[in-house]
Design brief:
Arc_rbn_hlx_hlx; 2 helices; single chain; mainly alpha; CopG; Ribbon-helix-helix protein CopG domain-containing protein; Ribbon_hlx_hlx
């Protein structure tokens, strides 16, 4: 199921989106925004992973011996 979200953008941003769609990089404006959200989500996961790596390297992380240790 899909939902419709309406947003307001400055004309300069609208022009960037329109150019991206016209150039064929995206099939539609919706695809442009889906791409942005996927990128944002991927970057969020990468930041969380990097934070976990830093915690592990600094000795703050807990090493699990099994999945039961998660409880």
């Amino acid at each position: 199921m899909r939902a419709v979200i309406n947003i307001s953008l400055p004309q300069q941003m609208v022009n960037i989106i329109d150019e991206s769609v016209k150039s064929g990089k995206f099939a539609s404006k919706s695809e442009f925004f889906r791409h942005l959200i996927r990128e944002w989500h991927d970057n969020k996961l990468l930041r969380e992973l990097e934070q976990s790596r830093l915690e592990f390297a600094s000795g703050k992380a807990k090493v699990l011996k099994s999945l039961k240790s998660l409880r």
